[in-house]
Design goal:
It is a single chain. The protein has a domain of 196 residues: Rossmann fold (3-Layer(aba) Sandwich). The chain has 11 helices and 13 strands. The strands form 4 sheets. A 7-stranded parallel beta sheet has the order 3-2-1-4-5-6-11, with helices on both faces. α4 packs parallel to α5 and α8 crosses α10. The radius of gyration is 19 Å and the shape is globular. The relative contact order is 0.14. The structure holds uridine-5'-diphosphate (UDP). Uridine-5'-diphosphate binds next to α6 and β8.
């Protein structure tokens, strides 16, 4: 693939920063644009950092004029489901309106290709498992709706103005860079694997298990955990598949499901820690099973997960947590 200059909006965040590393490793130049509200300046290591907001057309325009990107990857988003219910307007402003602003800036500066960070939350509670891209999308919270709307708008804009767009619908992103250069730092942390590992590290007294009475083999929810390094490589591969005037969407997952009990058992084995569990009621809006059919990404851009065995995901996340205990500790 020829070398491209890629504007990575939200590139100081968890998946964005791993993608910048993958872009640089493939010979591309990532230019990060981030408001640093949830992203971290320390995670920007492979190119310049431009400070700005996804809704600021003048600032985006200035950055595009100076850096002349060939393509954009958009990670700039709010991503807490619970918060999206409490403050839906903020979610639509950032995740949906932000996409409009970004694509307006692209048109002003003749940037022809965009990859959007989307989510399996756009499917809601799916009618069938595994979930393929043609499974009807019925998001059940404002976060999922903000992403589905962003996809719909992107599709119309790509068609109308000849942009090439790809939306990547992630399942459960987890793990950390295996070189220890990057990892997860969310405040607050709400995701299962880092919380289980915080309990293993003694940073929390226990891990809550939300629901033990689902119709699954062990009664706990099943998810498809995908290593963040595999997500990163999919973005690099997708860039080369953006075609003028076309929009397409791809699932990114492993096709294998792991239950909460599986995750905890695996974390116990890897960390050697007991990990205290606390049974709790079901969390509102949790589908019992979410597993991807990601065969379309494999067929279309030859992508397949190479790092996403659950053991490997948890091993890398644990290595990151043990080195950066203070950074990931809850309560700050
Ligand atoms: N979960 C849990 N305890 C926690 C956090 C999450 O039991 O402290 C469960 C959650 O209810 C879901 C699964 O773990 O069934 C994965 O949740 P996560 O928030 O990591 O990702 P989601 O699938 O919601 O995007």
């Amino acid at each position: 693939m020829e070398t491209v200059r890629v504007l990575v909006t939200g590139g100081a965040g968890y998946i964005g920063s791993h993608t910048c590393k993958a872009l640089a490793a493939a010979g591309h130049t990532p230019i990060v644009y981030d408001n640093l509200r949830t992203g971290h300046a320390w995670a920007v290591k492979w190119g310049p950092l431009e400070h700005g907001d996804i809704n600021d057309l003048a600032s985006l325009s200035d950055v595009m004029r100076r850096h002349r990107p060939d393509a954009v990857i958009n990670f700039a988003a709010l991503a807490y489901v619970g918060e999206s219910v409490a403050r839906p307007d903020f979610y639509y402003q950032t995740n949906t309106a932000g996409m409009i602003t970004l694509m307006q800036a692209m048109r002003l500066h003749d940037v022809g290709a965009i990859v959007l960070s989307s989510s399996c939350a756009t499917y809601g509670i799916p009618a069938r498992i595994p979930i393929a891209e043609d499974t009807p999308q019925g998001p059940i919270n404002p976060y999922g709706r903000s992403k589905r709307m962003a996809e719909e708008i992107m599709s119309d804009v790509c068609f109308a103005y000849g942009l090439g767009g790809i939306a990547l619908r992630y399942f459960n992103a987890a793990g950390a860079d295996s070189d220890g250069e990057l990892g997860e730092e969310h405040h607050p942390e709400t995701h299962l694997i880092p919380l289980v590992l915080q309990a293993a590290a003694g940073l929390r007294p226990h891990i809550s298990i939300f629901g033990g009475d689902y119709d699954t083999p062990d009664g706990t929810c099943i998810r498809d955990y995908i290593h963040v390094t595999d997500l990163a490589s999919a973005h690099v591969a997708a860039l080369s598949k953006c075609r003028s005037g076309e929009f397409s969407a791809y699932n990114l997952g492993t096709g294998r499901g792991s239950s909460i009990a599986d995750v905890i058992a695996c974390a116990r084995a890897i960390t050697g820690k007991a990990i205290v569990t606390q049974p709790e009621g079901r969390r509102l809006g949790d589908p019992p099973v979410l597993v991807a059919d990601a065969s379309l990404a494999r067929k279309t851009f030859g992508w397949s997960p190479a790092h996403s065995d659950l053991e490997n995901v948890i091993k890398d996340a644990w290595a990151w947590m043990t080195i950066h205990r203070a950074r990931v500790a809850p309560g700050d």
